[in-house]
Amino acid sequence: MRRIVTTVLLASALLGAGASAALAQFATAPMSPAEVVVIDRVRDGTMITVQGEAIGEHLRAMGGGRWVNILGDDVGLGIWVTDEMAEEIEYFGDYRHDGDIVRVTGILNVACEQHGGEFDVHARDFEIVERGGPREHDIQPLKGLIGIAGLAVAFGLWRHYVRRRDRRLV
After folding, report:
1. d(CA 79, CA 54)
2. Are strands 66-72 and 75-81 parallel, antiparallel or unpaired?
3. Using CA atoms, how far apart are residues 120 and 62, in angstroms rounded to an integer?
4. What confidence tier does 114 reach under pLDDT thresholds 50, 70, 90?
5. What H or E segment, with its residue span, contains residue 111?
6. Burial level of 35, CB count in 10 A (0-12/13-18/19+)?
7. Which DSSP state fits 31?
8. How far apart are CA 118 and CA 87, in angstroms?
9. Which candidate, 50, 53, 48, places its Cα nearest to that of 30?
10. Among 25, 28, 22, 27, CA closest to 103
């Protein structure tokens, strides 16, 4: 009987430790900007971690610091960072580049008083998870041929219009 009780207690302790480790890992897992935008508004003023691709460029913020927009799951989110944090970003995502993937831990503001009531995150911790770089685009000759054919048709229609117009004027 004693062995059974000891085994049950040991098994429940191990299961409890595993569950608490899983919960701790889930609590620190970074959210995407899409998850942050739909977050419960009662979390205003709490610390969150968000991860996404830095896009556009960093913009000067009123009162110091910089704005960095990050993209994740097709949703952008404005992050207020210090000038030093913004300088760490090497590539911003655009047509020609994949942006750096950044992880930001900061304070969530549903209606930030400092920035005119904007929904934003004020960064406390900032790290580059993965560097971006130049993006390669495949050349698609078929699209070029279609474009040239379209220009030829447009030129032909324009010439036809000019001839008909000139006949009316005479």
Report:
1. 10
2. antiparallel
3. 14
4. confident
5. strand 101-112
6. middle
7. B
8. 23
9. 50
10. 28
